[in-house]
Amino acid sequence: MIQSNNETNDTRFACVGCGACCRGRFVPLTLNETHAWLRRGHSVAVLLEAFDETAWPQGAPEFDYNTLRSAPVTCGSASLQVIAIFAANVIPQCPNLGEDDLCSIYAERPLVCRIYPMEINPFIALSPSSKDCPPESWDQGALLGSDRELTNQILQSRQADRDDAQRKIQLCEAMGLTVAAWKGNGLTIHMPTSEAMLVALESLEARDSSQSTWRIKAEDEDLLEALERRSYALEGGASTDFIFHQL
Fold this sequence. Notes:
Number of strands: 10
Shape: globular
Distance between the termini: 29 Å
Number of domains: 1
C-alpha cells in the first residue's frame, strides 16, 4: 500500500469559514457527485491528461498509482493511459456558496471539500503556503494526520478514482472529448454543456465501448518529437474545443 504524506502529518488546522477554498478553482468530483452536481444545474469541466510507462523511472510507485486511476485508450497506432478528472467549475465562485460565505449544501458537499486542505495524492505533501486558507486557520484545532475520519475520506476518494476511471473515459468518448495533454506538460480543459454531459452520463450504461482514437496536445518541441516517434497521434495548432493549460 502507498502511504500518504498526510498519514504522518502533524499540522493543526481549524476552518474559519472564510470561503476562500470555494472560489477560483476546479473541484474534482466522483462520478456520482458529478451526476448530482449536473442535476443541480451546475457546470462540470473535464480535465484530461495522458501518459505511458516512460513518464516515470522504471518501477516508480507513481506509475502504479496513476495507472489505477486511468484507463487505456488507442492513440495513433499505439495505446496509452488517460486520466479524466471531472471537476465542478467554481470560477469565480461555487454556486452553492452563500452570501455569508457558508456552504448551502454542506451535508451533501463533495468528498474533496470534506478533505480540504489535506491532499488526496499520496505524492503531494500538505503545504499551508500552497493553500488559500488565512494564517489564523493554521496551528490551531486538531492534528490533521490523526483524524481517522479524514483519513477514511481520503481513501474513499482514491478508491472512487479507481472505480470511476473506465466509465469516465467512456463518457468522454461519448461526448467526443478525445484530446488529452501529456501528463506533466499540461492539461486539456473541456467545458461541455451541463445538459449534454447529463444526457451522456444518464445513457452511459446503455452505451457500448467505442473505438475512439485519442490525440495528444503538447507544447514542448522535444516532447512532441518523442511522442511522434512512439507513433502517437498528435493534436496540432490552436483549438476552440478545449483550453490547453500548460504546467
